[in-house]
Amino acid sequence: MKFPESVLVPAFAGMILLAAGGAAAHGDHDHAAEKQAAPADSAKALAPQEGMKSLLIHLGLMEKEIGAGKLDAIHDHSEALAASVRDLDKDASLTAERKKRVQGYVKNVLKLNDKLHHSAEEKNTEQARKDLAKLQAQVRLLDKQCAASPKP
C-alpha cells in the first residue's frame, strides 16, 4: 500500500516533534538516551562490595543535598546510585535465596531512585524528602541482605 505524500510528510513531522518534545519537556537531558547508553557503560560495573559502599555514599550525599535544598545536584548522585546497585547480585557468596532477595530490593531501589530523581527535577522538595525516606528504608533492607553474606 502506497501512502500519498500529503499524509506521510505531516505524520513524519509529527513524530519528530513528539520525539523532540519528549526530551525537552523533561529537562535538559534525555533519559531514553541514558538507558540506551547503559550497556556500553558496563565496563564501569563495580564489584558488589564496592557497589554497596558507593550506594551508601551517594545516598548520604543525596540526603545532604536535599536537606540543603540543592535539588539540582540529585541528578548526578541518582545516576551514580543506579550504577552502584547494578551488580550487587553478582556476589558469589550469596545463596540463591539471598540473591533473589537482593535482586528484588535492587529493583525497588531503582524505582524509588527514579522517583526521587523526578521529584528533584520538578523542584518538589517535600516530595523529594518523602521519596528519600522510602529509598533509605529500601537501602537498609538491601544492606542487611548484602551485609549478612560473608564478603571475600
Textual characterization of the structure:
This protein is an all-alpha fold. Helix content is 72%, strand content 0%. The protein has a domain at 44-148: Up-down Bundle (Four Helix Bundle (Hemerythrin (Met), subunit A)). It has helices spanning 5-24, 31-37, 48-67, 74-85, 96-121, 125-148. Helix 3 runs antiparallel to helix 4 (74-85), helix 4 (74-85) runs antiparallel to helix 5 and helix 5 (96-121) packs antiparallel against helix 6. The longest helix is centred in the last third of the chain and has 26 residues, at 96-121. It is elongated and about 40 Å long.
**What is the typical, i.e. mean, pLDDT?**
77
Number of strands: 0
What is the CATH C level class of the domain at 44-148, in words? Mainly Alpha
What is the CATH-assigned architecture of the domain at 44-148? Up-down Bundle
Provide the succession of SSEs: HHHHHH
Q: Please, what is the oligomeric state? A: single chain
Let me know the CATH homologous superfamily of the domain at 44-148: Oxygen-evolving enhancer protein 3 (PsbQ), four-helix up-down bundle
Q: How many separate helices?
A: 6
**Portion in strands:** under 5%
Largest sheet: none
CATH topology of the domain at 44-148: Four Helix Bundle (Hemerythrin (Met), subunit A)
Structural class: mainly alpha
Residues in helix, % = over 70%
User: Could you say which overall geometry the principal axes of the C-alpha atoms support?
Assistant: elongated
Q: Roughly how many Å is the radius of gyration?
A: 19 Å
Uncertain ranges: 6-26, 29-43, 148-152
Q: Span between N and C termini? A: 63 Å
